[in-house]
Amino acid sequence: MPTTVLLVRHAETYGNIEGRFCGHSETELTPKGIEQAQALGRRLRGQRFDAAYSSDLSRAHRTALHALEHHAEPLAPVLDPGLREMHYGEWESLNGREIGEKYPDQLREFFRCKVPAPGGESIQQVRERTATALRRTVSAHPESTILVVSHGNAIMAMIAELLNVPHESSWSFAVANTSITRMTFSKSGRMTLTGFNDHGHLEGAAAPTAVFG
């Protein structure tokens, strides 16, 4: 049997609604974000996980706890810094408007996947870091079903790396808060994407927000 991964983006944060590049910086879930995470938990009611992993940043960890609150047996997520969001260097905690005013040319080239934020991680570094973290988790739990909670750009980079998407197309995805992306891994390590950005549980709860953080 293959290993199945349900990859989830954390719920809405204050950094999201303020348009901030939080990266490795902490930012709390909003009241709407808590509703989103609770809706995710209800969506996953009846889903059995053999293991759960989360970025060690609090927004992802708290989302993971809500996701598992209806699990049949107590299951604590393992915190893995390899699942963190991209580090934005000098742009950490700035909003897009501030970055656009201070670094207009560099921000444009950042979105074109040509340069990193000053002092921050490159897209390729995030691709390799996150994909390595996921492969490590899959290897540790063969023939299992795993919950993994991470961040918007981290998930896009991870998927781009696993699918061998060209570097310049790394941001060619959209990942909503608490959306579920499903993938399976064969014994040989081959990944198959079986579902992407599923956030049907948010109907009536909250709309998706910006990708950063």
Description:
The protein has helices at residues 14-17, 31-43, 58-67, 96-102, 104-111, 123-140, 152-162, and strands at 3-9, 51-54, 78-79, 145-150, 180-185, 191-198. β2, α3 and β3 form a beta-alpha-beta unit. α2 runs parallel beside α3 (58-67). The chain is 33% helix and 15% strand. The protein has a 6-stranded mixed β-sheet with strand order 3-2-4-1-5-6. By secondary structure, it is of the alpha/beta class. It contains 7 helices and 6 strands. The longest helix has 18 residues, at 123-140.
Concise summary:
The chain is α/β, with parallel strands linked by helices. Helix content is 33%, strand content 15%.
What distinguishing features does this structure have?
213 residues; six-stranded mixed β-sheet; 7 helices; 6 strands; globular
User: Which residue ranges are poorly predicted, with pLDDT under 50 across at least 5 consecutive positions?
Assistant: none
Strand order of the largest sheet: 3-2-4-1-5-6
Order of helices and strands: EHHEHEHHHEHEE
The end-to-end span amounts to 34 Å
Approximate helicity band? 25-40%
Main sheet attributes: strand count, strand direction, barrel closure: 6 strands, mixed
Q: In terms of quaternary structure, what is this?
A: single chain
Specify the number of helices: 7
Q: Roughly what fraction of the amino acids lie in strands?
A: 15-25%
Structural class label: alpha/beta
Shape: globular
Write down the overall mean pLDDT. Answer: 95
**Strand elements, count:** 6
The rounded Rg comes to 16 Å
